Amino acid sequence: MRLLLSITVIILGMTNCTPTKDEGKESNLVDSTETVDVSKVPVAADKYGRAFSKAGNIFVVTKDAISKQVTFSSRDSHPILDKKENKVFFIRAFRMTRERKVGLFRTETDNFNKYSFMSVELDKLTEETITDTKPFQSQDPEGGIYIIDQPTLDPDGDHLYFITGKYATGNELVKVNLRTGEWRELFAADYFERILSVNYLGYFLVGQSTIEERGRDIYYRLIDPNGKIVKKFDSKSSMESFRRSQNIVCQNELAT
User: Fold this and answer.
1) Which of 231, 115, 128, 123 is nearest to 180 (CA)?
2) What is the rounded CA–CA span in Å between residue 184 and residue 50?
3) What are phi and psi of 53, to 5 degrees?
4) Model pLDDT for residues 150-189, shown as the tens digit of each residue
């Protein structure tokens, strides 16, 4: 099983990080309109120049500016164009329903999205599911992927960082290999930014839901690549002041 996704204008560059999501919101990855390009192959040798999503379907654009639709589910987002293997990684959302008992004689229906990381080969349009289950225990006994927040492509173009559900009181930051579907759990996180600056390369600015001096709240830290807390901040604004003082730049979050 393996994965997918997308990002704006080419995100292997470095730009100043700005938070784009509020903690605690359910992810919604279906409506998408932007592009991503993570190839290491020179553009002159490429058949396709970029990928984008529109109305829940994935398109690629040739060097002659001709658009080609490559998925047709109306449920796809976050395309990542891989020119080397002539495919696009993406996320597909599946609308699910679940009955639950309320009291002794009544049931209610919950509606929610379940996500799969997929790829599509651009000439034959054959699709492959990279991964659609979490390899660790969580609230859901089936191990489905119901939250994908802040998907961020690693500069190597092969791995994706994102936050997914694990605990009733918090989530987990994970790193997934787009080619093999292999998951790696990093640490608890409800918000993160991956640092690209030389002085803190590979470190994370993180918000974690935990119980400390303010009780249950989001606490902000600087965490090293091994998950060790290097610095604690009094607040999110304190963390942002530290980022500005150190001229820290971060990896862009993928565009939908």
Assistant:
1) 128
2) 28
3) -120, 145
4) 888 888 888 999 999 887 767 999 999 988 999 999 999 9
Low-confidence spans in the chain with pLDDT less than 70: 1-46, 137-142, 169, 255-256
**Residues 52 and 62 sit within 8 Å (Cβ to Cβ):** no
* Nearby residues of 12 by Cβ (< 8 Å), 6 or more positions away: 38, 153, 155, 157
Decide the pairing of beta strands 159-165 and 48-54: unpaired
Tens of pLDDT along 238-253?
999 999 999 999 987 7
Model-level pTM? 0.72
Phi, psi torsion values for 245, nearest 5 degrees:
-65, -30
Residue 155, phi then psi, degrees to nearest 5 = -60, -20
Cα 226 to Cα 118, 151, 186, 203, 222: the distances in Å are 28, 20, 8, 9, 12
For residues 3 and 27, what is the distance between their CA atoms, to the nearest angstrom?
17
Interatomic CA distance for residues 18 and 229, integer angstroms: 21
Percent of the chain residues past pLDDT 90, beyond the cut: 52
